[in-house]
Structure formats: structure tokens, C-alpha cells
Amino acid sequence: MEALGINPGLMLIWLIAFIMLYVLLTRFIYDPLTNVLNERRTRIAKGLDDAAAAAAARQNAEAEAEKILAQARSEAQKVIDEARGRGEDVASGIEQEARQTAAKIQYDAQTEAVATRNAELGNLREQVLQISVAVASRILGETIDAAKQQSLVNSFIAALPVEARGLGGSIEVVSAMPLTVEERAQITGEVGASDASFSVDPAILGGLIVRWSGGMVDGSVRSQLSQMARNLN
Amino acid sequence: MNSFWNGKRRYIALLLFLAGVFVALVVPPVIPFIQLAGENLPSGYDIPFTDIRITNTFVAAVIVWILLLLFTVYIARRRPSDGGEVPPGGFYNMFEALYEGLMGFIGGIAGGAHFRLIFNMFMTIFLIVLLSNWMSLVPGIDTVGFIHPHTKEKFDPETEEYKVITTDGFEIYQGFLGISYVNGQCDWISPADEAAADQAALAEAEAAGLAAQQTQIEDAAYARYQAAHGEHGASEHTDEAGGDHGEDSHGEEAVESAATAMDDEVLAARIAEKQARANRGCYTGVALAPWQDGYSDDKDAKKKPIPLHPDPSSEEAKRVPWVVLPLVRVASTDLNMTLTLAIISVVMTQYIGFKALGIGYLTKFFNFGTLFKSPLGGIDVAVGLLELIGDFAKILSFSFRLLGAMFAGAILLFVMSFLVPILPWPFFILEFFVGAIQALVFALLTAIFMNLATISHHHDDDHDDDH
Amino acid sequence: MDAQATIVLGKAIGAGLAMIGAAGGGIGIGISVGGAVMAMGRNPDHTATIQTNMILGVAFAEAVAIYALVVSLIILFVLS
Questions:
Q1: Mean of the per-residue pLDDT values of chain B
Q2: Hey, are the CB atoms on C66 and B405 less than 8 Å from each other?
Q3: Per the CB < 8 Å rule, is A6 touching B336?
Q4: What range does the domain containing B418 cover?
Q5: Does domain C11-77 match CATH 3.30.70.2750?
Q6: Is the domain of B203 the same as that of B297?
Q7: Is residue B83 in some structural domain?
Q8: Which one of A82, A129, B192, C12 has the largest count of C-beta atoms within 10 Å of its C-beta?
């Protein structure tokens, strides 16, 4: 023991010193530092969890934003489509209106032109009548005037064959001179047509030609003249 | 500052290298007298109120304790108060990194209910042993100390008194900076031994002379015998031998001179040896022999009491051998420390065993439960008793492992320093690692044994029996 | 040969013989570290456990060598 240097007194001092150091180090270093490190570890773990949650939340928000954007986009598309449709409608409406207007204008112009023509023809009527009358009177020695016309019409109606009465369809009436409204009504009523179109052809010289789908009645002066001429020959 | 030192540190290393060579030349290293026990400091350095003599290893222990106290204060001041605070940098941060690493390490080994106790024990032992071990790397420790007469106090049973006797040692000299240095070139020779050696040499020389004389006489007698017989045998011999009387007287003179020459030869060798010592600068063992002028044998040398602590510069200092008594010797090279720590470790192992398993912990050692149940019950008893012996053996194992490693390391550094001044540098690095590893092993084994003590082995056996 | 020289001779021989025991420690450390390294190579996930047990085993094996060292140190420096 002596040679090995073992000294119980020194060992006792070592023991006391060790216990004191153990207590001091535990009290001032190990316990607080271990707590601090554990707390830091949990904090870091929590921070990581929070970060993960935040990342997930951000991802959700992004998805939502994407959804909202998609919705907005589709809505915008719809609005655009709608606007386009409405525009097309408007355009087509305008076009139609324009077309209608154009058609109306055209019609009006046509009507006007027809009226003008009729008026012109009306104006011409006297002259034509005079000429026709003159020609006819020259040929026939007879003068055709309004009264004559009337009588011609009347005779035409009277001479109307049976098959030309009560036709009921649409007929075409050709006269050498524009017919008055009464004359027209008379003809229509006699023929019994539901619809009649009237045209003027001075070439027939006088009288009427009525055409319908089944046949025709030629009561024109020209045909009579030609009949006459044929008879004369 | 940093940029200033960049690329210049190597010159500092070179300067230190040259300084090592210079110091080694001015103050040659001395191979120390090695003893296992811590050297007692000179009297007057007792622990107050006791008669315990302070050893130099104890001084190192006190330094370790003070350093650990300062360390505690430092860490307690620097450490953050809660987990959210950013830790300060520098040394504290290094310690914290080490602490956290060791915490994870011990947590992997003993991360149970007793983790705190085991880890605190581990860390305390680790810090104390590590600091003690690394003290061996500090210059001046183990080398600077008292110049101390190397004496032993021996109990003399005849006179029933303690007698101071001198043992081996070195001479000292006053040198560099007026400090006393031990002279490694001159081992000390006591005057009494020197005188005895001189007497022995003289006796040897006389004996050699006498022997030479004897040989010479015998040779002469033989020559005469041959000459006498030659008269009968060979006539040419007598012709050459002529004049017996004259030859006799001449032969005696020759014998005389041959003896003196032989005498002188032996003595000359002895004197040359002394002269070589004197040339090395030694003062003991160089006194001239009594057959030469100027020798004064101090006949009273043996009677004069040798003072325990003579003034190194006095004349008395020449009559005692000197050694350096290091003021500080590494604490872990002393059994007092290692044995105390080993006992603490083993006691704490038993304590934690009882704490964890209650009185059932004793079944680890006295396992009579299966003695009559199983045919192998006797083996269990023997194993338990072996465990008990093993726990006591752990004390020896712990203490001698640390002591052996650190003491051998200290001796290694001594010897390497003695051989070549530059040589110990790599060994300092080796000692750095050995110190760290031994500290870790001591603390780790404590932690592992403590953890093993908290685990019930017999629980598993019972579990197996149930199946 | 005087008594002192005989003592020194005996001490030196005894210390040298005592250090033969260190060979066992060296062999043991070599075997255990070799086995541990092989185990780590085969099973790198359990490196921490293997390392701990290896250090434990090495410490035990080293202890034997250190006992031999202590015995030789005691022979050299304690016996008188």
C-alpha cells in the first residue's frame, strides 16, 4: 500500500471533492442544459411540423387559387361567349332589320315605281286610249273611251264562258288599260277568284284576257280584230 | 488580425522547434527517477489540520477541481436560459456540441428511466478524467518542481529511530537564470561509496601488482630451472645464459618494476575514469585517490547528519543526491484518484441496481431460486457468486486501466524527451488521443455497467419458464 | 556480480516477461475490431450499436494488456 501510494486520507478528500463536483455540475450544468437541449429539440420538431403544416396549407391555398382562377376563367369565357352570342344576335337583328328595311325600301321603291308607272300609264292612258280609239275608230270607226271600256268589260263578263266562272284559284288578268278598282272588283267577283293579279298590256288594244291555271278566256280587242280579219279573209 | 497571421504561423512553429533544441542544449533533459506513488511534497506542505502529506498528484487534482469549478461558472453564465435562445458561440458552443453528441450517445446506450442519473455520472467522470489526462500535455507539469534531495526515511529496528538514508540521484548545478538544475550527465556518488571504491581499486591494484610480481618471480624461477636443466640437456642454452648471479639480481629488479607497472596501470585506469567524470563537470567521484596528492577523505562524512533540505548552493549540497520533485504530477497517474473513481463507479452501479430493481437486485448475486428446481441450478449459484467477485474485480480493472495507461504515457514522454528533444512531439499527439479515449472508456464503462444493473436478467428467464 | 546488479537484472527480466501478456490484449483487440468492422460493412444500419459493443470489448481486451503493463511497472518502480 505504501509503495503503491494509496493514502486513505487523500482518497476521502477525492470522494468528497467528487460528490461536490457532481452536485455542482448537475445543479448548474447538466440539469439546465439537458432541459434547454430537450426544449430546443421539441421546438425544432414543432417548428418542422409547423413548417410542414404551412407548406400543406400553402399547397391547399394554391389549389384553391387555381380552382378560383379556373372558375373565373370559365366565367370569363362564358361572358365572352355570351357577349359574342349577343353581339351575333344583335348583328343578325340589325342585319335582319337592315334587310327588312332594305326589302321595305325596295318594296316601297317597287311600289312607288309601279305606282309611278301606273300613274305614268294612267297619264298615258288617255293618249293610248285616244290613239287606240283613233286606231280603232279608224279601223272600226268607233271610239273607245272609258264608257266603251266599261262596256267592253261588261260585255267580256257577259261573254264569259261557264267554265270561267267560280274558279276559286288565282287568276291573271291582262287589260289594255289600267283597270279601276271597281272594275277589278267586278272582274274578281265575276270570276270568283280568291286572288288576282292585274297587268296592263296595251298590245291587246282593249278588252280583257283572263288566265288561270286551267285555261284562258281571251276577250281582247286584238283577238277579236284578228278573228275579224281571219273572217274577212 | 487574422490576415496578419496568415502564412506566418509556420514560422512560429519553426521558432518553437528551434527553442526546443536550444533549451535541450542549455538544460539537458534528465531521465527522472520514476516511482508509482505520488511524490510527497517537502515537509511544510501538509493538508491543514491533518497529518496527510500533500503529494504532487494531489496538487494536480486540486487544479482539476478548480478548473472544473471555473468551467461550471463559465457554462452556467453562458448557457441560454431556454430552448428558444440562440446559443453563444466560442468555447461554449463547442462544449454544447460535445454535450449534445454525448447525450445522444448515452441516450442510445442507456436511454431509459434512469438516463439522467447515468448521464450525469458519465459526464462528471468524463470531465474529471479528461481534464486530468490532458494535464500531462501542459509544459512544465511533471518537469518543473522542487530540487529535492533524494532520500528515504527508513526505520532502524536496532535504534528504533527513523534514519535518513540517501539513494540514487543526480548532482545539481546553478545555471541558466540562476535556477538550480539537475545534471543528468552526473549520477551522484556518495563520498563514502567513492572512498570504498577507491580502496577497492587500490586493493585490486595491489593484488594485481602482487600477482604480477608472483608471475614474474615464477617466470624467473622457471627461467633459472630451465637454465639449470639446460646445462645438462642443451649446451647452446648455457652458452647464452652465462652469468647466473648477475641474472639473479637483475631478475629481482625486473620483478619489482613489473609489479609497479601493473599497479600503475590499474590505478591509471581508475584515475582516467575519474578524470572523465571531472571533464563532464561532475564533482562527486572525482576526488583524487589517497596515493595521490591533494586527496582529503572526509572521515566524518558518515557521522555527520545529512540535513533533509540543504541549500542547493551550499557545500553540504554536494553530499546528497538530488532529483527534481515535480510540483505537479498528472492526477491520473496516482492510484488515489483512479481507485476512488473506480469505487464510486462500482458503488453507483450497485445503488442504481437497488433503485431500479429493489431488493430483487440481490438475486443477481445470490441466485438460489433455481437451485432445487433445475438440474443446472448449481451453475446459476456459481454464476451469481462470480458476478459478485466480478463486481469487486471491476474496481481493480477500472483503477489499473486508467492508471496503467496514463502512467505508461507519462514514462513514454519522459523517455522520449530524454532521448531527443524533438522526438516527444508526435507522442504528445498520441497522449492527447490516449487521454481522451481512456476518459471516454472509463465513463462509458460506468454508464454501461449502470445501465446493465437496471436491467433484470431473471425476468427474461421467468418469462421463458412460463412458456 | 553484486547484489544491486542482480536486482536490476531480475527486475528487467521480470518486467519484460510480464509484458508478454500484452500480446493477448493485442490479439483480442484485433479480433474484436476486425469482427466489428465486418459486421459494420454487412450491416451499416447498426453501426452505432456495433461500435458501442466494440468499444466495450476493446476496453476489456485492452484491460488485460494494461494489467500486464501495470504489473511490469510495479516490478520496475515499486519493488525495491
A1: 77
A2: yes
A3: yes
A4: 55-135+330-466
A5: no
A6: yes
A7: yes
A8: A129
How many Cβ atoms from other residues are within 10 Å of residue B87's Cβ? 18
Name the pLDDT band for B459 (thresholds 50, 70, 90).
very low
Question: How many whole angstroms from its chain centre is CA B98?
Answer: 33
In C12-71, the residues whose Cβ lies within 8 Å of chain A are: none
Distance from CA of A50 to the nearest CA of B (A): 15
Over range A106-119, report the average pLDDT: 80
Residues 339..398 of B with a Cβ closer than 8 Å to A: which? 339-341, 343-344
State the smallest CA–CA distance between residue B452 and chain C in angstroms: 13
B74-107 confidence digits (pLDDT tens): 998 888 887 777 778 888 889 999 999 999 989 8
Residues from chain C contacting residue A3 (CB–CB below 8 Å): 78-80
Residues B65 and B130 occupy one common structural domain? yes
Per-domain boundaries in chain C = 11-77
Residues B309 and B346 in one domain: no
Residue range B287-310: average pLDDT? 50
Residues in chain C closer than 8 A to B448 (CB atoms): 52, 56
* Interface-testing mutation among C11, C19, C69, with chain B (most B C-beta atoms within 10 A): C69
C29-C30-C32-C37 Cα dihedral, nearest 10 degrees = 130
Element (H, E) at A48: helix A31-139
- What is the predicted pLDDT for the residue at A17? 94
What's the whole-number mean pLDDT along residues B424-428?
81
Please list every residue in chain B whose beta carbon sits closer than 8 Å to the beta carbon of residue C52.
108-109, 444, 448
What is the average per-residue pLDDT within A75-91? 88
Candidates B143, B188, B216, B205; CA nearest to B421 is B143
Distance CA B437, CA B443 (A): 10
> Band of the pLDDT at A76, cuts 50, 70, 90?
very high
Q: How do residues B247-278 score in pLDDT, each as one tens digit?
A: 455 555 666 666 666 667 777 777 777 777 77
A3 Cβ under 8 Å from any chain C Cβ: yes
> Where along chain A do its domains lie?
145-232
What's the residue count for chain B? 467
Q: Does C69 touch chain B (CB under 8 A)?
A: yes
Spatial distance between the Cα atoms of A217 and A212, rounded to a whole number of angstroms = 9
- Asked if C5 has any chain A CB less than 8 Å from its own CB, the reply is no
Q: Is the pLDDT of residue B206 over 60?
A: yes
Q: Is residue B352 part of a domain?
A: yes
Interface residue B67 vs chain A (CB under 8 A): no
Higher-pLDDT residue of A105 and B303 is A105
The predicted structure's pLDDT at residue B344: 95
Contact check, Cβ <8 Å, A42/B47: no
Whether B35 and C49 lie within 8 Å, measured CB to CB: no
| CB contact (8 A) between residue A18 and residue B124 | yes
3-class state of residue B28 by DSSP: coil
Residue at grid coordinates 454464476: B383
How far, in Å, are A117, B15, B18, B314 from residue B11 at the CA level? 130, 6, 10, 43
